[in-house]
Amino acid sequence: MSPAGAPMHPAVPEPPIDPEESRLRVGPPADHAAGLKAVQVSLGRALRQMGPVKTARNLLTLNQVDGFDCMSCAWPDPQGHRHTAEFCENGAKAVSWEGVRDTVGPAFFAQHSLTDLAGRTDHWLEKQGRLTHPMIRREGSDHYEPISWGDAFALIGSSLKALASPDEAIFYTSGRASNEAAFLYQLLARAFGTNNLPDCSNMCHESTSVGLASTIGVGKGSVSLQDLHEADLIVVSGQNPGTNHPRMLTALEIAKRNGARILAINPLPEAGLLRFDNPQKPRGLAGHGTGLADKLLQIRSNGDLALWQAIGHLLVAAHGSAIDSAFVEAYTVGFESWKAHIRELDREAVLAATGLTWAEIEEAAGMLATSKRIVHCWAMGITQHHNAVATIKEFVNVALLQGMIGKPGAGLCPVRGHSNVQGDRTMGIWEKPPAIFLDRLRDEFGFEPPRHHGHDAADAVRALRDGRAKVFIALGGNFVAAMPDTAVTAAAMRGSQLTVQISTKLNRSHVDAGRTALILPTLGRTERDLTGGIVQRVTVEDSMSAVHASRGRSAPAGPLLRSEVAIVCGIGAAALGDDIPWPDFAGDYDTIRERIGRVVPGCDGYADKIRTAGGFTMPHGPRDSRTFPTPSGRAVFTVSPLAVLTVPPGRLVLQTLRSHDQFNTTIYGLDDRYRGIKSGRRVVFISAADLAGLGFADGDHVDLISEWEDGIERRADRFRLVEYPTPKGCVAAYYPETNPLVPLDSQAAESGTPTSKWVVVRLVACDPRISQVGARTADIPT
């Protein structure tokens, strides 16, 4: 039980447990990904949700040169030949989720009060269909009701103008937004007078942006898709490509067939890194796939910094021939200090942190030492730790040691999740903009942008909670469900004067909304955009800095939908007037791209470049010419202290993760066939050793209680324990169900990313018959 007198969180109602959880079944995890089953699931769901005509139209134009860009991840498209089915299972799910025929309009909101919706699950909310009408929840009301677009824009404009300071407004952005919408959105915020531009990268790859910017001078990866094909070793750290970036498996398969080896480093064995049954090939459909990972290191959560310091130590001490001395001398600084630090490595600390044997670490170091072209890949298993930035700097240290930047088949490859999160940052969605960007914005538009830093996502919650911010506008996303410390986030949003959600589907952020709340329905990525009376297209940037056009073909879900660009322009005109030509931007998106070309570094001639089939690749000095835009003009070796994180006896480290039937906070269904889960999500994956040590058995039900230095009790109730091959002391469970356990103030050093992969929890037995969230062990009769 919680310590006596432990403070509780704000009283925010939580949704009940999905009734389907009572039918939860657990089987063995899969030993391969994709294959015929992926085809069956993709087509079956598409046909049920969209019908045959829309299914054919959408799937055959998905990720094609003249089609639309998939919203389910930021993996790059091939530059040459593209398969007719250039998508994965989860891409097809995302398209079906957006293209569903069901709609949510005034009649739905008349039937369902906010009190009713608060009692529904997130899965239920998003299943209801596409939003079709602008809606308002007026202060004191328990229902949304229709509002005209003109009145909605006027309300936003008057609310912004009435603020005591521009910094009382928050402008949040999801990674789904196009480059054009993102550019206008940051223009709106800065012309209004604030840099409060948090975005979803604050929650995921912010640690990557900070770590890379401080070491190689560019906060983006340094590889192309071709580099993966040409690598002879690919290291995949803290990443589950089979679920989160399934098209990456094709690149790994090509690399394997070209002779590459793959080193996987992750607490859980993931089906996608065991074997890939490529559904685009007869062998894959027949179940004869390609084995991928040559070596799996099942590392303890947060052991990666120690592992990479050990690998660096071994490369320096035992594999001197693996050092590219010419590269180190010509292009780097700080090598001698780093080498002196790494030579004093504490081996026992490494073993304690990683849970690996020294022989396993030596084998991994040997794989690097004998490889000439190495690509380092990582995702949120790395970025969401307190020492995430230091870990990424250690990746860079080893890559610099071996000269693996700026050469074919080698480099740094952070794999970002949301489809245009990297493009949003390029377009200026950042609470800490560089001076050169603000100077160009000033010169182009004739106003002085604010220079002080704004709020990131966590600071935005604090500002709303404390009354320092009063208006929250979201360009996409589901902020309440995505953020940690759900009770605090939801209470902060409910206390806001006004929240504005620019959305395609109903979600938790429409329920835990401000005293006055607007829902503004927008076109989806799959839909035709005829804003201004012409066929419009938008652009996006993938994980490898390639920018290309995207144009939907399907009819909009309703006649009142507006594009993201048109909505931002409507807000801008209402809030700021006509000093900025908002109607021109909405009428022809090329006028936006012309301004992008003059403001955004690396985007010269943007409007012309995106007319090229397949688009263009943004310049990247370290990749293109081994030029490093750091203060010294060289790449930086970094010394980071090694601290081993420990937990009290009887406690475990929880990492939150996605199921295979999920994209970020969007839950497509309640199955995760790769991990053997059917009809349920409230599960905790736990080792046999921990089950025995804590006195539990596979199938027991528990409440999860997290422990952090503030002494506040955070809990998530009624989870089924599932025995699983995970390191002792480490457990895993799905988000957003476990986001309430992540403290808002537990953040990565330097980047502020939530530490969702290191949450100290204890397990308390509960009665599985208790059906409502919030039931406590004390409520169970003895």
Q: What's the arrangement of secondary structure elements?
A:
Layout (H helix, E strand, L loop, with lengths): L24 E2 L6 E2 L1 H26 L27 H11 L3 E2 L1 H6 L2 H5 L3 H6 L2 E2 L3 E3 L7 E2 L2 H13 L7 E5 L5 H14 L13 H10 L9 H6 L2 E5 L3 H4 L3 H10 L3 E5 L5 H4 E3 L4 H4 L4 E2 L3 E3 L6 H14 L7 H7 E2 L1 H9 L3 H8 L3 H12 L4 E5 L1 H4 L4 H14 L9 E4 L6 H6 L8 H11 L11 H9 L5 E5 L3 H4 L3 H9 L3 E6 L4 H4 L4 E6 L16 E4 L4 E5 L13 H13 L5 H6 L1 H11 L6 H4 L6 E2 L3 H5 L9 E2 L15 E6 L4 E2 L2 E2 L9 E2 L4 E4 L1 H7 L6 E6 L7 E10 L6 E5 L24 E7 L17
Helix pairs in contact: 1-2, 6-27, 7-27, 8-20, 14-17, 14-18, 14-20, 23-25
Offer a few descriptive terms.
782 residues; alpha/beta; Barwin-like endoglucanases; Rossmann fold; Dimethylsulfoxide Reductase, domain 2; 3 domains; 6-stranded mixed beta sheet; 31 strands; globular; disordered C terminus
Helical amount among residues, as a percent range?
25-40%
* Termini Cα gap: 16 Å
Total number of distinct structural domains: 3
Strand order of the largest sheet: 6-5-18-17-16-7
Looking at CATH, which topology of the largest domain would you report?
A: Rossmann fold
| Number of discrete helical segments | 32
Low-confidence stretches: 1-6, 771-782
Helix-strand category: alpha/beta
- The chain-level mean pLDDT equals 93
Main beta-sheet strand count, sense and barrel state: 6 strands, mixed
What share of the residues does DSSP label as strand, in percent? 15-25%
Query: Can you name the CATH architecture of the largest domain?
Result: 3-Layer(aba) Sandwich
Q: According to CATH, what is the class of the largest domain?
A: Alpha Beta
- Rg over CA atoms: 25 Å
Query: Any idea what the shape is?
Result: globular
User: Tally of extended strands?
Assistant: 31
